[in-house]
Each structure stands twice: as structure tokens, then as C-alpha cells.
Amino acid sequence: MKAQLAELEKEATRVLSAVAHGDALEAFRVKYLGKKGLLTAFMKKVGTLPAHERPEVGRKANLLKRELADRFRKKQEDLAARKTGGAAGLDVTLPGREPACGRLHPITQVILEVCRIFARMGFRVVKGPNVELDFYNFEALNIPKDHPARDMQDTFYVSDNTVLRTHTSPIQVRVMEKQQPPVSVIAPGKVYRRDSDVSHTPMFHQVEGLLVDKDVSFGDLKGTLTGFVHQMFGKDTALRFRPSFFPFTEPSAEVDIRCVICKGEGCRTCSHTGWLEILGSGMVDPEVYGFVGYDPEVYTGFAFGMGIERIAMLKYGIDDIQLFFRNDMRFLRQF
Ligand code: DAH
Description:
Elements: H1 2-18, H2 22-33, H3 38-46, H4 54-84, H5 106-120, E1 124-125, E2 131-133, H6 134-137, E3 157-159, E4 162-164, H7 170-178, E5 183-192, E6 203-213, H8 218-233, E7 239-246, E8 249-258, E9 275-284, H9 286-292, E10 300-307, H10 308-316, H11 329-332
Parallel strand pairs: 1-5
Antiparallel strand pairs: 2-4, 3-4, 5-6, 6-10, 7-8, 8-9, 9-10
Bound molecules: 3,4-dihydroxyphenylalanine (DAH).
3,4-dihydroxyphenylalanine (DAH) binds near residues 169, 208 and 305.
């Protein structure tokens, strides 16, 4: 009887380990654990044994029944887990899940690219405060008291003589105040204006450039900005310098590039002119040198400033500035 029981256990173990689906498991239950199963039949025979053998064999048979019932339940769980994709049913052939990976905002990317281009030409990257004194934002840049930019309507005032900077140009003054020429700096940052509609946001970004030394000419300004445009928009991009006015440069020029959309044919983006304005520039006005203690008889220099959102829109063909600030992942993921 004991040998029979051992044989039964061996067989049941083998059968159960081969079970791969619910039907086979049910067949196993019926055959070994069922009311008409082998173990029940075995138990019945225990009663026919001589009295002194009965307890031991009976105990062993009961033990085996409990053991097989346990293993049956375990197998049942495994099969269920496999169906619902639990650890036991891990399907290694399924495609992997890509971990979410952050990236730089398109505006940050353009700022970095502009800075990289000028850094290669020897410009040093500098920063300035967002909350700025009237002196640096307006006064020292030769912006007169009655200039519309100074109006409460156009500028965020923090106090009577403190503003949220309306452009990055005050950084020019802060740099010149601290060091004598030669200077060549590039200064990216946020700027603020009381302006909000489809094409304006109250905060946007600019990059300012300044170079002062002996014998710096308008030709140097043209060469530098031409090099920039060619690296930023491609070697075939035509550009032109158009006379303009800024209080802190004399002479001043705005730079246009050939329309990136219609290539100069004329379209809505370029208001049918074939040209797109991308930055303001000029030779630093001697008046500004007066505020920082540079000798205008010895030194000359140029400055320029550009709006980053505008550059990014033209470079990537984006027609809505608000897209940069909505944080829509479908938009941002494209860069
Ligand atoms: N600060 C000017 C603006 O916000 C842009 C600008 C024009 C900067 C001419 C310059 C410059 O440095 O020389 O519109």
C-alpha cells in the first residue's frame, strides 16, 4: 500500500506539471481529487488493512490529498495570472514601453543655438536682472522721458524707478559699466511688455549682442550679422539692412531676411513684401558711452537685439506665437 501511495504521488506530480490549461487542470482534479478519483478509492482500501497498519497509511494518504489539493490551487492561480498578464504570464514578445523622456522647449533650443553661433565668433554669454532700474532700461540707453515705451500703458512698473525690463538692451549698459573695451557679449533673457493679443505675449524672449573696441565699423556689424543669418537660416538666405531708428544706436538698421515661406515671391507671412524683419541693430550711440565712461573718440561698437519667438516661428514655420506658451505636448514633442 505504501509503495502504491508513493507511485500515486509521483504520477500526480508528473501530470500536474504538464497541465497547461483549465480543461487539463479540471481533468487532473477529477482523476486524483474527485469523489470517484484515485485518492478516494485508495482511502476506501485503507479500511481493509490490518488494524496496526491503518493509522500510518491513512495519515500519509490524507497528507498527500492535502498536498495535491494545495498544488492544484497553486496551479489554478498560475493559469489565471497568465491570462491577466501577471508575472508568471509575462509575454516577452510584446513591444517595449518607451520611458517618457523630457526635452528642451523650442524657445530654449533657439536661444542655445543663437548663443552657440555667436560664441563661436568669440562672444561671451552674459545675463542681467529681469527686474530692472529705469536707469538701465531707459535712461542710460538714451530713451527720452516722453518716449512711448516709458508709458504705463506699455511697461510693467514695479515702482517709480523700477520696471520689468522691456528689452535686453539694459544688459549692454551693465556690461560696459563693469569693464573697459574690448567687449563682445551676447545676452539672452525674458522681457516684458503690456501687450497681449494673437501676435503678442506679455512675456517673450530676446537676445542682445554688443561689441565695442577700437576701429569697429558698420562693416563689422554687417559681416557679423550676415554670418549669423547664414548659420541660423542657411547659406542661401538673402538679407538686407534697412535704415531705421533706435535712441541708443546711430546709425541704426533693421535686418530683413528673404521670406522663408515664399522665398521672396510675396505671401501673407511677409505681407507681400518678400522680406521678414528679424532684428534691430546699429552703431552704439556716443550718448550711451557717456553713461558708462567710455571715450567715444577712442572706441566704437555695434549692438543688436532680436526676438527669439519670432526667429523660432520663422525657422520652424510656426504661425501662432501662443503655441510656445500653451504647453501642449503634441506641439512640443515635435522639436
Ligand atoms: N531693444 C530693441 C527692441 O527691443 C532692439 C534693438 C535694436 C537692440 C537695436 C539693439 C539695437 O541692441 O542696437 O526693440
